[in-house]
Amino acid sequence: MDVYEAVMSRRAVRRFTGRDIPKEVLERVLFAANWTPSGSNLQSWNTYVVTGSPLAELKKRAGRRVAARDPWDEREYEMYPADLKSPYRERRSRFGHERYSALGIADGDWEASQRAASANWDCFGAPAALFCYIDRDLGVPQWADVGMYLQTVMLLLRGEGLHSCTQMAWSVYRKTVAEILSPPERLILFCGMSIGYEDVTESYVRTGRAPLNETVTFVDSTSQQLAQAAREGSLLGV
Ligand SMILES: Cc1cc2nc3c(=O)[nH]c(=O)nc-3n(C[C@H](O)[C@H](O)[C@H](O)COP(=O)(O)O)c2cc1C
């Protein structure tokens, strides 16, 4: 698969078949993903891959907590700033609207959206899950390295005909995840990732993106001349 096709065909898939993934496929993906670059080659990702009965047990325990409306574990990091500013606030609500209206859930129907979100802790039916941890002593640049690593994993999965959904949702039940994985105390759970073969009978709406000119600025001789002309125009009051 060509790189563009891998990037453009990756999306957050939220319904998988139960078809098992051969272990050698997951090993091949994670071996290649280990070549992700990182500042000073720190390689700050700590990955656990869970399948079979340990994953079934994790889903069962998390499902029990969801059903009991157990309070979420205290946060080790904030998923989003409390006061999300523009344009992020609008993008977040557009995403929520797109995701939940595709499921026939009306804006503001908190109960129904929570029911849909609870599929997170069943890994959307996936037969494999990856949990990515980072050392609590590392800083923002190393968290960015982990992000690059996760994207590399997701693209390689596409190369294997697999799909994925990265899930910060798992961080709210991090203690349940820790019961199964027993990670060292020095690690923080950043996110989980469900991995599997897409259930193609499930319809979906492709999540959109902001137009390029909202997120990318090209600085070249033409743009500089235009900026200069605009500045002179404003000085002349035209
Ligand atoms: C770090 C990260 C955490 C995410 N957490 C969740 C999650 O907990 N549950 C979920 O359903 N989707 C989650 N997503 C998926 C995003 O909602 C999705 O990537 C985004 O809306 C763009 O859609 P696309 O991936 O289909 O292009 C997460 C994505 C990332 C990168």
Characterise the protein shown here.
- With 238 residues, the chain is α+β, with helices and mostly antiparallel strands.
- The protein has a single domain (3-211), classed as 3-Layer(aba) Sandwich (NADH Oxidase), CATH 3.40.109.10.
- The chain contains nine helices and four strands, in the order ααβαααβαβαβαα.
- The termini are far apart.
- 22% of the residues are buried.
- The model has no long low-confidence stretch (mean pLDDT 95).
- Flavin mononucleotide is lined by residues 11-12, 14, 95, 120, 165-169, 191, 207.
Which secondary structure elements does this structure contain, and how are they paired or packed?
Blueprint: H1 3-9, H2 23-33, E1 46-51, H3 52-67, H4 88-102, H5 110-117, E2 128-135, H6 140-159, E3 163-167, H7 174-181, E4 187-196, H8 212-215, H9 221-236
The structure holds flavin mononucleotide (FMN).
Shape: globular
**Uncertain ranges:** none
- Report the bound ligands by name, code or SMILES: flavin mononucleotide
Order of strands, main sheet, comes to: 1-2-4-3
Number of distinct helices: 9
Identify the CATH architecture: 3-Layer(aba) Sandwich
Provide the gyration radius in Å. Answer: 21 Å
What's the name of the CATH homologous superfamily?
A: NADH Oxidase
**CATH-defined topology:** NADH Oxidase
Whole-number mean pLDDT: 95
N-to-C CA distance: 52 Å
Count the E strands.
4
Q: What is the count of structural domains?
A: 1
Primary descriptors:
single chain, 238 residues, alpha+beta, NADH Oxidase, four-stranded antiparallel beta sheet, 9 helices, 44% helix, 12% strand, globular, binds flavin mononucleotide
